[in-house]
Amino acid sequence: MNHKHPLFFLQIIIPIVLIFIMLIFLPRFSSMQKWEGQKIYNRHCASCHGKEGNGLKNLFPAIRESSITAPQDLVCLIRNGRNSGSVVAMPPNQTINSKEMKLLLIYLYKEIFRISVPNLLSEEVEKGDAFCNP
Amino acid sequence: MPFLGEPRLGSSPSGHLDTLYPVIPPFSFTDQQHHLINQDSLKGKIYVADFFFTSCPTICPVMKSQMLRVYEAFISEPDLMILSHTIDPYHDTPDVLSRYASDLGVMASRWKFLTGSRDSIFNIAEHYLAFANTDESAPGGFIHSGAFVLIDKQKHIRGYYIGTQEKEVDRLIADIKILLYEP
Q: Is A1 a domain residue?
């Protein structure tokens, strides 16, 4: 005789329920991430580069077609600012914290540059911050 | 369209007692082509005035992208001018303003970027009901209003708009169309 514990069915049900919950929350989590990233982008970057990253004429570059996309380079650029001789400069930004920096970069990759998010982004952001902070 | 500012009683040009609305007093500034600009340069024209500085990291780029909409809407209307005053004249020389204007792609005949002594700029800002001042704690070192101010041919203030908001600038564009037909 095959004796099964009366609560045997829970062994199957519980994992199924857990997977179900994850499937519901995963997209929510990533759209929350997008929303957070968008807030950071709008607060710190959109005034010059525009909400969609289209820039403003020859004054502020359209970062949709950014020549700088490597995560460490982006962190350096954002932290130190840049002026390669144009009449306006990109100002340094030390107020974004490293958690926000990661969310901002994810937003840049997905919504502005529209390229895939690089692997090991957290580590790359940390490295960028370690090497670039003046 | 209304007249803005605090009215006072005084005698009108025809000698009657009347409520008089404030007018922009005479001024003299230098534009991005090193030309002197005063009220004679604006005879018979209406204009929009604002205050900014080229190294402003916050609202100015948004104001400029909105002002560009005004510029483009009236590109073939010689009776409308735009006057953008810098509140950072030490940095924003006529040459800096000239590069700024050309990177924005706008013609000096229609959109003047003005500089002058700091006191005269801060002082004229008050007449436009805008404010401008130095503030060490503000990003870029200055605080200023993001207003666009519409001035008629008699130098009266006829409209006041938040220069960073698309809806407000739509209202400005509509008001300019009306004001252009006033004598």
A: no
Q: Domain range for residue A36?
A: 6-132
* Cβ proximity of B71 and B63 under 8 Å: no
| pLDDT of A2 | 62
A60 touches chain B (CB under 8 A): yes
Task: Give ipTM to 2 decimals.
Answer: 0.87
Best residue of A43, A47, A86 to probe chain B, by most B CBs closer than 10 Å = A47
Report residue A1's pLDDT band, with 50, 70 and 90 as the boundaries.
low
Length of chain A: 134
Chain A residues inside the 8 Å CB shell of B100: 59, 87-88
DSSP H stretches of helix in chain B:
60-73, 94-104, 118-127, 166-179
Three-state DSSP at A19 gives: helix
Interface of chain B toward chain A, CB-CB under 8 angstroms: 54-55, 57-62, 64-65, 68, 96, 99-100, 102-105, 139
Domain map of chain B by residue range?
Answer: 8-180
Tokens of A94: 């030390």
- Whether A104 maps to a domain, the answer reads yes
**pLDDT confidence of B153, banded at 50, 70, 90?**
very high
How many angstroms separate the CA of residue B19 from the nearest CA in chain A?
42
The CATH number that domain B8-180 falls under is: 3.40.30.10
Number of domains in chain A: 1
pLDDT at B60 over 70: yes
Taking chain A, what is the end-to-end CA distance rounded to the nearest angstrom?
Answer: 74
Contacts of A50 in chain B (CB under 8 A): 65
- Domain with A118 in it: what CATH number? 1.10.760.10
